[in-house]
C-alpha cells in the first residue's frame, strides 16, 4: 500500500489501511457538519408515523427469492441458512424486524461489513492493492430487512431514485 510491501502477519494491516484510505472523506469537516445539520433538520420536520408492521408472509416471500451460492457476511449466515430454515425463520425475523421498526434501534451486526478484495482483472499484478476492488459482505438478515423497507418505500414514494437501492424492485 503506497509503495509499501506487506508480508506475513502485516498483510491484513496493509489491506485495512488501503481500504480505509479509499473511504476517506474529501469533504472538509465544516461542510460535512453543515450537510449533517441540514439532514437532521429535514428529518425533524417529518411527521411521526406509526410503522406498518411486517408479517411473516412478506419475510417468507423475500427469503424464497434469495439467490443461492452467495458468500456469508459478518454474521456467518448465508442465504441458504434462511432458505432452508423457512418457514420457521420467517416468524423469527418478523419479530426481529418489527422490534426494529417499533424501537428504532438497529442491531450492531446490521452496521458491519466484511471487505473482501477481488482482483479487477485476471492478469493484473496481485501485489498492487490498486488492482483490487473491495466487495463488502453484509449480514443476510440486514439485506432482507433493507429489501423489505425498499419494497415498501418504493410503493409509497416516487422520491426514491432507482439507483438508491441495492435491489431492483419489481412492482
Q: Specify the structural class.
A: mainly alpha
Q: How would you sum up the major sheet?
A: 2 strands, antiparallel
The global form is globular
Supply Rg: 20 Å
Extended strand count: 2
Order of helices and strands: HHHHHEEH
Instruction: Determine the N-to-C terminus distance.
Output: 45 Å
**Quick check: average pLDDT?**
82
- How many domains in all? 2
- Helix-residue proportion: 40-55%
Regarding quaternary structure, what we see is single chain
Low-pLDDT regions:
none
Physical arrangement of strands within the biggest beta sheet: 1-2
Helical segment tally? 6
Strand content bin: 5-15%
Describe this protein with a few key phrases:
single chain; 171 residues; mainly alpha; 2 domains; two-stranded antiparallel sheet; 6 helices; 8% strand; LINE-1 retrotransposable element ORF2 protein
Short description:
This protein is mainly alpha-helical. It is built from 6 helices and 2 strands; from the N terminus they run H-H-H-H-H-E-E-H. The chain folds into 2 domains: 1-48, no CATH class; 50-164, no CATH class.
